[in-house]
Each structure stands twice: as structure tokens, then as C-alpha cells.
């Protein structure tokens, strides 16, 4: 069977600020990423992106040689200073996005994660984050988050810790 050909039309990719950009299909790259929902004492850990200023879940892009779980544990540690174990797969979100002037077909995998040590000291990555904070699950900054992440957090944090 012949390899499928890209469409003849441009692909629309919104950037981190919600502005749409058009890209040739051949220029779009796959970007698998994994994000972790850490619920602890009726709170969830959220990071504020330096790039978009939105609050989201710790995590990020996975290297081609990593499993999703290994990449998530690495990203979580890099961004937060916290060592976690990856637990249960929650869902996957798919979209197109442009950041750093590059178009991506983004596949975002969400998991619950668990603390490996009872006492944690937050150590936010200053290159990527403006802030790192525990939020009560009933007081999420929903107006400054992606709607689907609010729903994922509410679903994940209803379960016993």
C-alpha cells in the first residue's frame, strides 16, 4: 500500500496565545507529551508556564527513546523537583499547536502520579515556569487553564489518594 500523501491545504495551528497560523502539512512534526495529575491532601500541583502564563499540569515532551511513563517521571522531576511514580492512564488529547515558530501535531497523554517521598520541597524550573503551586481542587484557576485539563483534574482527584 502506498504511503498516504499530505493534504493540499494548509493546516491551522493556534499558538500559545490563541492566534492562528497556517503551515504546510509537510512542516508539521509529531510531539508526544505526557502530563501528571498529582493529587495530595485535596490539592493538585499546577505549574504556570513562562511561555503562555497559563496554569497547567507538570509534564512535557517525550524523547523518541523514552516510554511515556519514563518521560513523564523525568519531566515532572525537571519541572518540579519532585520524584513521582506514574500510575494510571487517564486520557489523551490531540490538537495542532504552534510554539517557538514550529507547528506540531500534539498528542498529550495524561496520567495520575504518586509521590515517592512523603515530604516534598518544590523546586520549580525557572527556565520554563513562572510559578509552581498546590491548588485546592475546589478552587482551580479555571479561567487560566485549558478546559479539558480542569475536567481531567476533577476526575482524577475524586478518587481516593
From TrEMBL:
It holds the Pfam family NUDIX. Residues 29-158 form the Nudix hydrolase domain. The keyword Ion transport does not apply. InterPro entries: Nudix_hydrolase, NUDIX_hydrolase-like_dom_sf, NUDIX_hydrolase_CS, NUDIX_hydrolase_dom. Keywords: Hydrolase. Its cofactor is Mg(2+). This is Nudix hydrolase domain-containing protein. Belongs to the Nudix hydrolase family.
